[in-house]
Amino acid sequence: LSRFVKNVNNETHSEMTVLRRDAVYGTRDYGCPEQLGRNEYGVPGVKCDLFAFGKTLYRLLTNRPAGENMNPNYLPVPALYDLLMSCVNFVPDERPASATVLVEGLEKIQKSETQSIFGSFLSKIWGKNSPRPASPTPTKQISPTTPDISRSHARQRNALEDALRPAPQSGANMHSFASRGNEEKDISSPTPDIYTNSIGMKFKLIKAGKFQMGSEKGQNREKPVHWVEITKDFYMGIYQVTVGQYKKYVDEKGGYFAPDYNKQGDNAAVTGVSWDDAQGFISWLNEKEGGEHYRLPTEAQWEYSARAGTTTEYSFGDDSSLLGDYAWYDENAYDVGEQYAHIVGQKKPNPWGLYDMHGNVWEWVADIYSSYSSSLSSDPTSPSTGSYRVYRGGGWNFTASNCRAAFRYSYSPVSRVDFLGFRLLKLSTP
Fold this sequence. Notes:
The protein contains eight helices and 15 strands. The protein has helices at 47-62, 78-87, 99-112, 117-126, 147-164, 243-253, 275-289, 299-307; strands at 3-6, 12-14, 24-27, 194-196, 202-206, 209-213, 226-230, 234-237, 294-295, 362-368, 377-378, 389-392, 408-411, 420-422, 425-427. The protein starts with a strand and ends with a strand. Mean pLDDT is 80; it is low at 1-24, 124-157, 159-181 and 183-189. The chain is an alpha+beta fold. The strands form four sheets. It has a five-stranded antiparallel sheet. A four-stranded mixed sheet has the order 13-12-10-14.
């Protein structure tokens, strides 16, 4: 691996392994932030090795550049994504406590995934004393120069995971119902059904109700399915926040904007926005309109709105072959060369009139990631501490399975990637 040093004169040198006074040192793309001059994360220590290990294993398993943001679709099992993301956390204390803890995490995955592609891979690494499948599934190298092959491989891997996943118990009710008050405009209500704010953002009134959150057909992070009660009406953005809307904030407040990610015009969904950047936009909009009207939806509010009263995997049913009518995802975007966020509102809306709840760009929500509880909860919120924020909905470079209403992922709140944007919630009363 190439070593990287930048001295006080900002001269960059490769192939260097020495530490000099007043110099940053480490390995480009594999070095942790405290190695590469980010003093707010402390001084380099043994946990830099855990960061480098996470980057290295991602590179070995996917043949993708170590410097890119980790994409869960390139990894064989979700548990491995979670473990590697903990390794590359910018905050050293949030990385595994030691190499021993990291190895224990890998062993746990290997024992639970011995019938998957990754289980076969780990069995070969750990030797003949590790359990192996009777007929190991051959792995297929993913080439960084042929993204269509890598996406096809991701879909094949997802199909294998689905085939190996235990079937839900018969007779189980996956999601149940939500308030029907959202299907039609409540003419008698003093609260308007559609609200348009000062910068042209449109919001749809979502009535309070109950639903079952999660999916027994999905990944472990989507379980257990549990009842959730939304006790208050709220407004949900009809569209994802657009480039044009976000640029108004940037022009007035000087917020961060990623021009290389946002080349499809002002009506495309904005991307390259971290969770923290979204908070800056929200603060600006609240200040502009006076009060605390806007915020990110909670994870429960997001899924409630995405399901729109339905109990199926998607708001239009369980048949993923219909997804192209409702969403931009890998098959009708990435795989055909349209590798970017699209103009919002071009696909069919869900039953409550919300567009792009499936696909186009992933959407940050308010919550810190945590496991679900089986208990009934009213207006659930996330824990007060934790490293990762949840994002929902799927995106233009992800598979149909990732676009399901229950699917959830999490990321560092400082991450800015080209498939991740946001949608706003507005309180129904100031």
